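Aggregate trends can hide what the representation actually does to any particular protein. In the encoding step, the backbone of a single protein was reduced to a row of integers, each denoting a local shape. The record that follows shows the chain in one-letter code together with its fold in token form.

***
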Amino acid sequence: LMLGNAELNDIINSLATKLSNAMDKKGHAIEFYFSRNPDASSSLISHLLKPQKTVASRLGINLDYIFDEQKNFMPKWISREDIYLVLWTRPSIFSADESKRIKSESEDRREKNIKDKNIWSFLLPQALDTQHYERASRLILTRHTAFVNSFLAGSGNIGLSFKVLDGHDAMRAV
């Protein structure tokens, strides 16, 4: 799919409108990652030709001369491009009251761990400003999931499609 400036501006404006509610809140961010690698053209073309070669082989048709021609010709015109959008939700998403409550719970838990001589209390951070990782993580996860769902719905309404990657796939991608 090739876009001109006008089409790209339309997509950006539509997406900005759809996401205005989520992005008005402090704590959310969108990071864009774009990569263009012309050196990966040959391997990309080999990957794209694999199904065609498989079908030709199953049909008993020798089309190697056509596939070889495509391998030699297409890299001049095709380049591997990857675009990733990273959606962030940071602790600044919490209101002042929520932050105070998380800090208070963290302090209470720290004191209880010290009193109970819990071995884990020595392995986990004990600073007063350290959040209770489980509680804060669940709260952030809930807000982040809502943000991601809002993003996916908004982008889907304007004809964009995204695949949500798990942590392992995301790390492999970058």
